[in-house]
Amino acid sequence: MPDLLLELFSEEIPARMQAQAAEDLRLLVSKALRERGLFEEGAVSFATPRRLALHISGLPSRQPDTVEEKRGPRVGAPDAAVQGFLKSAGLTSLAGAKIHRDPKKGEFYIALIEQKGKDTLDVLAEVLPAVIRSFPWPKSMRWGAASARPEALRWVRPLHAILATFGPETEDTQVVPFSVDGMQAGAFTFGHRFMAPGKIKVRRFDDYVPALEKAKVVLDPARRRDIILHDARNLALAQGLELVEDETLLTEVAGLVEWPVVLTGDFDAAFLDIPREVIQTTIRANQKCFVLTGRASGKLSNKFLLVANIEAADGGAAIAAGNGRVVQARLSDAKFFYETDLKIKLEGRLAKLDKIIFHEKLGTQGERAKRLQDLASDVALVAGAEPGVAGRAALLAKADLTSEMVGEFPELQGVMGRYYALAQGEDERVAEAIEDHYKPQGPSDRVPVAPVAVSVALADKLDLLTGFFAIGEKPTGSKDPYALRRAALGVIALILENRLRLPLRIFVTKAIARADFAGKEGALRQDDVFGQLMSFFSDRLKVHLRERGTRHDLIDAVFALPGQDDLLLIVTRVAALQGFLDSEEGANLLAGYRRATNILRAEEKKDGVGAFDGASDPTLLQDPAEKHLSEKIQSLSADTQLHLSHANERIGRPKFAGQTPFEDAMESLSSLRDPVDLFFDKVTVNAEDPSLRLNRLRLLNELRNAMHGVADFSKVAG
Questions:
Q1: Angle at 586 (CA atoms; ends 714, 651), nearest 5 degrees
Q2: pTM strictly above 0.85
């Protein structure tokens, strides 16, 4: 079956746009062809700095023929309506139409219009120009003389050539006959800009890839990444060094070159006196180069690896030397920034924070630093840190935002604060907390465990969440400009990883009070803020636990209980509930619970909600089965409450041994299974005697309430 090869050859495509552009090209062309009845066997797309390429294999040679049924007027309709129908259907008389009989609507005319399928080549000639003209670049431009016309082609950079061929594997291919803005599609591509810039005639994908390779172009970005990584590792090993691998940088660099050549550069070893992170960030951000470390020492080397886009006659010596000079100059600037920053103590920078607006409704960074100082001191009492040390760390945590280095490299905030704090004689715990208070910033990020760092990290995230929720700036849909979802996940990770008993209501209340949101325009009431925040934490907790195999409905079952604001207790209770429901006793008891609640709901519709809230009367319990169930409910309620009361004593740091109090409570619940089964087997709930009916419904309500003391089983799915 025929294949399509399409290449769009242009000036440099930004590396950050390449992967999405290649995927967009594949999806847009495939979708347009499928909408026209042309389904492929496979489609792959590629990107280099100068080209987007698409290969679609196994296309049919033409569209399938179609038959469309066109409905006309009723039999006996006015002549004008009949003539209009004949004209639209392409018929000369009613002899070419059929009569359809509908039992309800009567008889009416229909015409069967046969549509012959087009050759795929002709369909491609319609589809491809439309895709190219409407291509969804994040940023695009017009160029040349045609740029004066508003309808002129827009592309990410000037588009120079279009290659488009179509045909079967065993025969000559044809050029797809179309043009865009006077640019005619052809059967030619171009090699490497410097090493093989000439035209290359191409028939199909099978000779396109090797032809490019011969012309010093590696088409597949995954292969370019592999080449860079393989050569970088080997080059480092040959020098007794080790590559500091960086997946993001590797992908970016692979998008900057068509023919990767890895080279070694170096800089003056004297620069190794400045912080390692500064050197690595400078080299990475400014030169897109990889740093190296000693294989044995792990210390940063004054050598680095760069990726050139050319095989130079001198083996790359001039390119490496040029990059070395630029790196040296950048490191000289970084050294100046670092030494300048050290002259001002972090505490001395606090006044500058008063001039940096955090948010127009939430005040300055200076005001926020004072809030964090107080909040971190409070959290420290729970996290096992000294309040004074935690408060000091929180007060200084944002001070490095005013430094020259962070101004140049914002990604080093926190990191530089740690270096400055240590150099200026601050407590090591303070320095560590300054660096770690932004963490964790994602599921793969390290979670702080040092008590002071945990205190400041929690204070930072709780203040952020409380503040933005209080002014009504919570995330909506996919929009989360203040990264509040990440902050909530960070709070969850910090609490669970460190097994902290942190009652959120208390700390949210304190955060609101310290920020003094009351009376500010758009501010919400304290209870509303807390309610919205707990709902938000519930959703984020579902995300966190779902990745670990926990059912989201069990989180709902626990969150539905009153006063649930202790995330460690919630997660511990959820784990116990999941274990209970996975057991045979739990599954059977859940079935009995559902039977009881279904009966209660049905009867509450007749008698009203709350009609069975009173206690059951022991003197009206006639059948041994209902007496046994009543006794079991009473004893079980006392047992479960006792177990649950132990949660505050036994859950927290360090991790307790043996069963949790919640598992003990679930174990007590399991003893209800047999009495519930026996009750439904022996007792008629809706007895003819009204007093017996009422008493038995109250007994079922007591059963429901007893189980709801552990979890709201009505929220359990299935």
A1: 85
A2: no
